[in-house]
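Holo model, alpha-D-glucopyranose. Inputs:
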Amino acid sequence: MGDNQAHFWLGLTTGIAVCSVAFSVYTGMVLHQTLTAASKSAPAQTVVSKAGPAQIQFQQDDSPSSETLERLHSMFTINSEKLNQIVKHMIVEMRKGLQADGQALLMIPSHVVNRPTGREVGSFLALDLGGTNFRVCEVVLDGHSGARVRQSKHTITDAQKHMPANELFDFFADCVRKFLIEGFVNVPRGKEEAELQARTWKLGFTFSFAVNQTAIDRGICVYMGKGFVNPGIVGSDVVVLLQEAFKRKNLNIDVQALVNDTTGTLISHAYIQPSTRVGVILGTGTNCAYVEKMENIPKYKGDDAEYAKEMIINMEWGTFDDEQVVIPRTKYDKRVDRTFNQEGKATFEKLISGMYLGEIVRFVIVDLVKNGELFLAGGSPELNEPRSFETAFMSRIERDHTLDLNDTRSVLEEMLKIPRTTLADRRLVKTLCELVGKRSARLSAAGVAAVVTKMNKLDGCTVGIDGSLFELYPHFSNRMRDALREILGISAENIVLEQARDGSGQGAALIAALANEGN
Ligand code: GLC
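Output:
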């Protein structure tokens, strides 16, 4: 053995010896800490350790009570059989909605009868009012399935969700005016107004609320939701409201198309993936649009019925099961339904979308604290504040894979100011988020399964999906895929769920382009 090797072996054995001493000291400390910590916390389960010769008895406070867990599981789990019933019921409701107006599923004809070829060209404006933000976009379509987008984004305040329609639409027009002027290049200072007057623009308006669409560029708003209660919007033609605001602000803009975000998503995804037949939004709200054969839309009496083979239908699936016949709802879901506007409306959406999931979880947590099943040191005024538990917190908690659930601790103790949480508490909250998040994904999958089955597309099609839940919520897409497999069996492999992007901007511009081609 050479000198170097001898040093190596000596070093290695000394290292092992030092490590094993350190390890025994460490294990001793951990055991001591476990015992002391356990003896401090009560009530907790008693666990008998069979590790040593003398049996050690200690209290374990790391696992939530199995009784509580079982109760929550049975409340929030939707099994395969139920999923299948939901699918069947949705297909029945889809047929009814296509037959006549005034049904639970609105099944709104979008008046969009063409899908893009990817060869569309031109520059279009797009406005996007979705829920949380208002965006102004300029989209330049390059004719090769590509687009350049410039945009400005504005958060919609609570006050704006309450102001009269004209004031809100004046705000939109002001944003557009500013955006256009900012985009002027090579226009001398002081000449912006003249340039503005000399030019005209074509625009697609994404208005992501239920609208009874009477033409590609006409539609009466029938229901808003998402916290919007502006007097003067429901019952009005939103294109007229926008066009009048442009007039008041001296803007030469022609609104060519009124678009739902789901229709925009379908079209913008079809621009890059021609097998796309379905567009879904899973975000603040949820909804779906798909391509339906014209002969299957008996209630549609427009001119297009004569020559067009198909039309995109905006399902407004958020209101599915408003008559409450198929989806089991917990007392917490009912509480959320009562406390958000429009009680009894948007049943499906209230169980699925980002606007509501956090509040469902909060109601359960508050109840568990009241029953002494969680946070023995008590809750907090922040936790009792309506809507304080954001759906983004659920994402963060579900993404927390640390041993001690440290990120969950930050959410609970730092953001919600819960005085003290145990590992068992944090595990319980994490399980609760998983249950509510999983139920949302499984219900969304049931919706997609119903649509592809109704379309007879089980042999293959692409579903473009946009929205923060699908994009950012951990495991959401995998959970949807699992549920699709449970419902559709092997055919689920033919249904491709893909992240779609910017249907509300690019999609609206494309629909304006398609509408323009038809003129
Ligand atoms: C709501 C709206 C619907 C929209 C969806 C997603 O359900 O009623 O039109 O598509 O939210 O934004």
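Residues 130, 208-210, 225, 260-262, 281, 285-287, 316, 318, 349 surround alpha-D-glucopyranose (CB under 6 Å). The chain has two domains: 67-88+320-499, 111-271+501-514.
Archived with the compound record.
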